[in-house]
Amino acid sequence: MARLMPYSYWLEGLRRALLPGHSDSFFAGIGNRELLTILGLTTLGMTILGFGIFYYLERLAKSRGLIDMITEH
């Protein structure tokens, strides 16, 4: 699951920038250029997934009449 999250790659890049020569076994076979590529792709994927979920749930709320509903609180 951690390999799907951009946060993991961002933290590894930050770790490499602050502690040169330090490498975690989780990312042992990944170079810096590959790390940035994977970071970009996972970020793009999560952004598309997030917008897709938001669009679906917004349409669901509109179809149920939950948007612009007056609650009188």
Quick one: how many beta strands? 0
Overall pLDDT, averaged?
A: 87
Helix content: 55-70%
Low-confidence stretches: none
The outline comes out as elongated
In percent terms, what proportion of residues is strand?
A: under 5%
Order of helices and strands: HH
| Biggest sheet descriptor | none
The span between the termini is 41 Å
Number of helices: 2
Report the radius of gyration as a whole number of Å. Answer: 19 Å
Structural class: mainly alpha
Structural notes for this entry:
- The chain has helices at residues 6-18, 32-63.
- By secondary structure, the protein is an all-alpha fold.
- Helix 1 (6-18) runs antiparallel to helix 2.
In short:
The protein has 73 residues and is mostly helical.
Set down the secondary structure blueprint.
Elements: H1 6-18, H2 32-63
Features:
single chain, 73 residues, mainly alpha, 2 helices, 62% helix, elongated
